[in-house]
Specification:
By secondary structure, this protein is mainly alpha-helical. Helix 1 runs antiparallel to helix 2, helix 1 packs parallel to helix 3 and helix 2 packs antiparallel against helix 3. The protein is elongated, with a radius of gyration of 17 Å. The mean pLDDT is 86.
C-alpha cells in the first residue's frame, strides 16, 4: 500500500523527467542523424518523431491523472495531493514539450 502512495506522489514527476530525457535525447539523435532534412509528407522526420513522442507522453500522463481526478479534496488521505501532482505532471508535460510543434529542431 505504501508503495502505491509513493508512486502516486512521485510517479508523475519521475515520468516527466523520463519524458524530458527521451524527447530531448530523440531530438539530439535525430539532429545528428540528419532526420531534420528527411521529409515525410511535407514534415521533417525529426519533427514527426518528436510529435509522436509528445502525443505518447501526454497520453500516458493523462491516463495517470484519470484515476485521481475523482478523489475528494477534503479527505484524510494523501490521495488529494496525488491528484494535484498528477495534474502538475500532465500540465508540465504539455507546457514544456509543446514546442516540438513550432520550434526549430536543430
Amino acid at each position: 500500500m505504501r508503495y502505491r502512495i509513493l508512486f502516486a506522489l512521485a510517479g508523475p514527476l519521475i515520468l516527466w523527467a523520463g519524458y524530458f530525457s527521451a524527447i530531448y535525447g530523440l531530438q539530439a539523435v535525430g539532429c545528428r542523424a540528419g532526420w531534420d532534412v528527411m521529409m515525410l509528407g511535407g514534415i521533417s522526420l525529426l519533427r514527426l518523431t518528436t510529435i509522436v513522442a509528445f502525443v505518447v507522453a501526454v497520453s500516458v500522463s493523462a491516463l495517470l491523472y484519470l484515476p485521481h481526478r475523482k478523489v475528494e479534496a477534503g479527505g484524510e488521505t494523501i490521495l488529494p495531493i496525488a491528484r494535484y501532482v498528477a495534474l502538475a505532471g500532465l500540465a508540465s508535460t504539455i507546457i514544456v514539450f509543446a514546442g516540438v510543434f513550432w520550434l526549430q529542431m536543430c
